[in-house]
# Entry
Amino acid sequence: MGAHWSEPVARLLRVGEDFDLPRVDRSATPGWDHGKKKAEKFMAKRGKELSELQERLYADGRSGGNRSVLLVLQGLDTAGKGGIVRHVLGMVDPQGVALASFGVPTAEEAAHDHLWRIRRELPPPGRIGVFDRSHYEQVLVVRVNGLEPPEVNDSRYAELVDFDLELAATGTTVIKVALMVSYDEQFERLAERLDRPDKYWKYSPGDIDTRLDWDDFQAAYAEMLTRTSVPQAPWYVVPADHKWYARLAVTELVIEALRSLDLGWPPADFDVETEKRRLAATH
Ligand code: AMP
Ligand code: MG
# Structure
């Protein structure tokens, strides 16, 4: 058997009605009591499962199915969004993944409605879409930095939920992940970026400005999580001080989403026996 989750991780991490962000211990490893070494071993096994499920989704899309998955990754600087992309999605066939990152809107993006750039990057059928930051920045950085009037910003919550519901209704399984790192761990990770020339590229002076607004960002996250987690598109809060835990947990969330699609292999759209005879004739 070996080490395994003690409880379904989706249930442990899902944001429900009684959610309280300050209570979340960012160095905890809910559902996993076996430490890092065993997690890494288990991760390799889960990678095989993830890869097979992803192939089924891809095959379904190629055969006219309309299903897709969208993994939304949110988290402050250093929370490990990039590591999730590399270590979790890195375990599946890159052809099946549609990755998009959202930074400060370009002039062209800013000239449109805030969902314009998001719609353009939605995963086509058969794909796992991954958003490194997302439409939810509208109630995070935009809110904290006061980039639009408060009453407009307040209307965004309902708008974001409607958007996700529309996705869910048209065949996209939406998994929203908030990677929550602690203030102290963020310090360590930023310090490392400043200490190591191979990490400078990950650092941006603006990271310190965001860190100075830590409490405001925590409040914005808390509000976002409680106001925009719906059964059709729930938020999962993933403690992210242990990178290995966050990666293992997100792997499991994606596996569970894919498994719930219950996809078989598409049947042949040709006559198998005829094709075998035709092939044999060329031997
Ligand atoms: P990074 O993810 O490190 O490449 O940084 C991207 C930056 O873009 C972050 O500082 C975000 O806060 C910022 N950003 C993302 N979306 C928006 C938005 N809608 N408006 C303003 N800033 C944004
Ligand atoms: Mg950054």
Summary: The first strand starts at residue 68 and ends at 75. The pocket of adenosine monophosphate (ligand 1) is lined by residues 77, 102-105, 133, 137-138, 141-142, 206 (CB under 6 Å). The chain has a mean pLDDT of 97.
